[in-house]
Amino acid sequence: MTHTVEKIGGTSMSRVDALRDTLFIGDRTGSALYGRVFVVSAFGGITNLLLEHKKSGKPGVYAAYASADNDHGWHEALDVAAGEMAKAHAGVLDHPADIERADEFLRERIEGARNCLIDLQRLCSYGHFRLAEHLLQIRELLSGLGEAHSALVTTLLLQRAGVNARLVDLSGWRDEGDVSLDDRINGAMAGVDPETEMPIVTGYAQCAEGLMREFDRGYSEVTFSRLAALTGAREAIIHKEFHLSSADPKQVGEESVRKLGRTNYDVADQLSNMGMEAIHPKAAKTLRQSGVPLRVTNAFEPGDPGTLIDDQPADAAAVEIVTGLDIIALELFEQDMVGVKGYDAAILDVLTRHDVRIVSKVSNANTITHYVDSSLKTMRRVEKDLATLYPSAEITSRRLSMAAAIGRDLKGLSVLTRGLQAIAEAGYEALGATQGPRNVDVQFILEREDLQPVIKALHAAFVEDGASAIAKAA
User: Fold this and answer.
1) pTM beyond 0.70
2) How many CA atoms lie within 13 A of 387 on its CB side?
3) Is residue 277 domain-resident?
4) Is 335 a member of any domain?
5) Which residue of 12, 275, 311, 322 could cross-link 459, Cys pair, CB 3.0 to 4.6 Å?
6) Computed from CA positions of residues 357, 273, 256, 241, in that sequence, does the dihedral angle turn out positive or negative?
7) 332 phi and psi, to 5 degrees?
8) How far apart are alpha carbons 111 and 106 in whole angstroms?
9) Residue 469: its pLDDT value, please?
10) Where is the domain boundary, 219, 241, 263?
11) Whole-angstrom Cα distance, residue 131 to residue 125?
């Protein structure tokens, strides 16, 4: 196949009118417009309103409905979401007929969802039915509204510009629900010819597996990767608002960062572990196993090839990215641990039960420390459960940070030693450091307030002075 499958994130979608003139069309004419399948996310901020705010946790429609003592909260939340969706498409569509069509589509979907939720509420007023058993389906129904809306608006926008765009709605609205993801995609794409038309595909796909059960809000990348694999795409492309760079420009300065240009799936996995997702790990696995290379580009610089992610080894050892995140260090000290099995398994069981994501861990004869991505509130519940299991153990949770130097090949660079030196020379202290034998990342444990200056110091040592560092190592 010669087509590509390309995904556009929510923040970029809010400027889809600008993308029409660059990414979608640009200087292309005729057949050059086609051979591209686009998977779109909801407009920026809409999924937060439909579900809950991803960072602050502020309730959206779903959260208000799931915990409602009365009807007013979720009805008002749905009205707010509908208003913002209408505002989003009015801001990018120019033609009155297109705005009217989008208004009608939105009204039909919003009122359909409202009636569904009312009916479910009424049904669950009977003792034989439990609302909790249907919450996952409600979450998926609401998520699908955002992507179906943005896909329809994008299709109208492009059709008005003379592009043979086609809406491919995978959201399963008033459709049979008991189909697999593969069947959903194959059925929707059966009559589509990417060489003569431009499919605009919803990032959410309704299927029997229930994408949100496993992936929650990472579902659009799962849809994107599966679509690329099933259609045999030449390349999968993710368009972001920025280039995949050697560090966050806000932390080290725009003049200091460098576009990666090329890396591999190992690095992408390490980035995901550090909360800096180039792509969801399960989506990356799908592309990797299907032999489809991934490219990450800046949506607003369509002439730049961006960064290619594949399975090729590095030409030379180098630190490619320096990043970091805030963590909690959960430490369990037990004098009687030496030689006794089962402590680690029990801790993992408790962390899993509380849905705590483990970033890394270290252990010695009588102490096990898990570095986790969680809140202190959750960790207090974890501590309580562990104290019940091990009443004589000392259990503590401490707010820290982790910086990481990541690359396809770090062999021979003495990253651990030189990283510790760079941190010390900058006037800071590493509380711990680890490097695995695979030589793809080195992690430094720090006080939370030291993270940003340490990232800057490590970036200066390994990336900005990278050429001299490689020469010295050689």
Assistant:
1) yes
2) 10
3) no
4) yes
5) 322
6) negative
7) -120, 115
8) 8
9) 44
10) 241
11) 9
